[in-house]
Amino acid sequence: MKIHSVIGGGGVKLHVCEWGKADTPAILFIHGWSQNHLCWRKQYESELADAFRLVAFDLRGHGMSEAPEAQQQYTEPKPWADDIAAIVGQLGLNRPVLVGWSYAGFIICDYVRAYGQDAIAGINFVGAAVTLDRATFGVLIGPGFLDHVPGATAGDDFPSNVQAIRDFVQGCTARPLPRDEYEVALCWNIVVAPRVRSALVTRAINSDDVLTMLKRPVLMTQGRSDTVVLPAMGDHILKTCPTSAASWYRETGHAPFIEDSSRFNRELADFVRKATTS
């Protein structure tokens, strides 16, 4: 593993990790709300690292990346777009495939809106959210997220933070994770400050303008039993994006890349090979 320190939007220092071979097609993994690059362990410790250049990082305010104080560093689209552009540019990633889980759907669309799609080969939306406002609550965004937001964002109530994050992590998968995996996931979730979690969910986002103009291939990966980002969000991506194709996972929750990593890795490898040779 190589570790990079990349200067992202507004001078924020980002913790970036790399595996695999530099002269192979690149995959940039982008995690979700309150998560960490460690969530991609079943990808970077798999055979994917033998065939591709894998890069994963901690979002601003998450993990080992810098957490700026100003709220607009999280609520405005430009810093997120600039972060992705900085990683692609400073690491010299040649037409990477962007893999975005959950909240990363917003971030990928922020990037494409600001920088276009010429520098990427394709997008894999994984249980990804692309629209966020009150009208989506219970329709596109589910109780697996909404029920835990109040406790997870309570800045002066650490016991509520802990309980909310425990419940949120448990609800991310259709079946309970092995105890050691759950404990590690709980740790990387709880280190994110409530003020950061809160700032991220105050955004009002509609990414239809990006989805309708995408020309790069898009793979929409979604668990049928996802209660965090509802399957209806996946249907919305498919209806809105003309280049999208679906990969539905039965009896799978919000994290198909963890719950069925063998299938996910195989499908991702096929998608990347096709996207980077077209």
Automatic annotation (TrEMBL):
UniProt key word Nuclease: no
Residue ranges occupied by any AB hydrolase-1 domain in the UniProt entry: 25-260
Q: A Pfam family this protein belongs to?
A: Abhydrolase_1
Q: Identify the keywords attached in UniProt to this record, alphabetized.
A: Hydrolase
**InterPro entries, A to Z:** AB_hydrolase_1 (IPR000073), AB_hydrolase_fold (IPR029058), AB_hydrolase_sf (IPR050266)
Tell me which GO cellular component terms the UniProt record holds.
membrane
GO MF terms listed in the record are: hydrolase activity
Q: Which PANTHER family is this protein grouped with?
A: AB HYDROLASE SUPERFAMILY PROTEIN YCLE (PTHR43798:SF31), MONOACYLGLYCEROL LIPASE (PTHR43798)
Q: What is this protein called?
A: Alpha/beta hydrolase
